[in-house]
Design brief:
single chain; alpha+beta; Aminopeptidase; Alpha-Beta Plaits; 8-stranded mixed sheet; 4-stranded antiparallel sheet; about 35% helix; about 25% strand; elongated; metal-binding
């Protein structure tokens, strides 16, 4: 029986999953605080007879393991955390939640502004489908729900907590690792790509130092705000003047903080920087250039001490394996037809998904198994078409926007089917 036939015979009614999605969207949890999402996934999997559910891995992470005879082991991954964003979608199930972030003790608005709630719903529907279809496949299915993806720490935390350690959580090492992400593309579509698919991302906090004083006496101070301003402007020349124009790279200063009031020159400024690159060589070049410029501007301003660099997060490159990607892409083309793009453009964002594969024990006694990661459209196709006709990409809310919310259908159906088709391309 082919995969599409298995799907048609085994997939559940999606209305309960739509309600589950709305509940998750309305009740998001920040990174490290994804308690409702974890409890929801755990409860659902334990209802499915045969799933071995193991919880509290690297925080709120969990796996469900379904052994179904000899064969390959396939790991499917969904991330579960939300973002500190105040939702502006006006959806009837929009989030109004606020919670204190355990990272810094500050109360924040919380929103699933990156679609991880959709990932959870699609994964649970896929788990139910594959559970129902057990007579049509052999092997071992692992469904993994990962916390703290937004801060690039969840996959590493699950590995460090013994995800694959036989003496800890003893998750069977996979032959392949598969994942997906909902993106601002037409709902009902999926896109695969061999090779580079997501950039590396490095974030850090830079503190530069001045000499504080009265706003009326600038000549006896060293103003860190002016110093920070020079740094911010000069950083933008790295990409425009030091990086090959044919290669993608982004440097973003997302936060600048200094002082508490207008009539006092403060003694320090904090700059938060995010860097995106697509090759290791450019990554090294940008990070070195940032340090060079920051130090030079501090010297030029007469800063009384060296700047302080503190790393806050680091995402690896996502580079899809050619064989795994082609296998999954072939199955997608057969099932989705023209709705599948096998030459999808790389993602603009970054992911820690690959760590679950690169740190997995392999069959020859080392580390690293192949993986592939694809995109899933989540935007009303009519809106996507209008944006194209008007040449106005700003019409389509992107991930991390206060207006980002996937249309529930056909996004959910497509995401569930993509997970099932991807898994069955190895399990049948």
């Amino acid at each position: 029986m082919d995969i599409s036939m298995i799907l048609s015979k085994s997939k559940p009614h999606l209305k309960p999953y739509e309600e589950l999605y709305k509940h998750l969207h309305q009740n998001p949890g920040l990174s490290l605080q994804e308690h409702l999402a974890a409890e929801t996934a755990t409860k659902h999997l334990r209802i499915l007879d045969g799933f071995d559910v193991r919880t509290k891995i690297g925080g709120t992470g969990l796996v469900g393991i379904l052994s179904n005879g000899p064969g390959k082991t396939v790991l499917l991954r969904a991330d579960i955390d939300a973002l500190p964003v105040e939702e502006l979608t006006n959806l009837p199930y929009g989030s109004t939640k606020r919670e204190v972030d355990v990272e810094d003790g500050i109360e924040k608005a919380v929103m699933h502004a990156c679609g991880h709630d959709m990932h959870i719903a699609c994964m649970l529907a896929a788990a139910s489908t594959l559970h129902t279809a057990r007579e049509h496949w052999k092997g071992t299915l692992v469904v993994l729900f990962q916390p703290n993806e937004e801060r690039a720490a969840g996959a590493r935390a699950m590995i460090d907590d013994g995800l694959y350690d036989p003496k800890r959580h003893a998750c069977p090492s996979p032959d392949v690792v598969l994942g997906q992400h909902v993106m601002p593309q037409a709902a009902g579509t999926v896109g695969t790509r061999v090779g580079h698919f997501a950039s590396a991302a490095d974030s850090f906090r830079v503190t530069v130092y001045g000499r504080g004083g009265h706003a009326s006496q600038p000549h006896v101070t060293i103003d860190p705000v002016v110093l920070a301003a020079h740094i911010i402007v000069r950083l933008q020349t790295i990409v425009s003047r030091e990086v090959n124009p044919r290669e993608g790279a982004v440097i973003t200063v997302g936060s600048v903080q200094s002082g508490m009031t207008e009539n006092i020159i403060s003694s320090e400024a904090v700059i938060k920087i995010n860097v995106r690159t697509v090759t290791p060589e450019t990554r090294d070049k940008l990070l070195a250039a940032i340090k060079r410029i920051v130090k030079a501007e501090c010297d030029a301003s007469g800063s009384p001490k060296e700047p302080l660099f503190e790393a806050t997060s680091s995402f690896p490159f996502t580079i899809n394996d050619i064989n795994v990607t082609n296998c999954v892409a072939s199955a997608f083309t057969e099932h989705f037809g023209e709705k599948h793009d096998p030459q999808a453009p790389p993602l603009g964002g970054s992911e820690d998904f690959s760590i679950l594969a690169t740190e997995a024990p392999n069959r020859i006694g080392g580390k690293g198994v192949p993986y592939t990661y694809w995109n899933l459209g989540g935007t009303d196709p009519a809106l996507v078409q209008k944006a194209k006709v008007e040449n106005n990409s700003g019409l389509v809310p992107h991930n991390h926007s206060a207006y980002f919310a996937p249309v529930i259908q056909p996004t959910m159906r497509t995401g569930m089917e993509a997970m099932v088709v991807g898994a069955l391309s190895y399990l049948t």
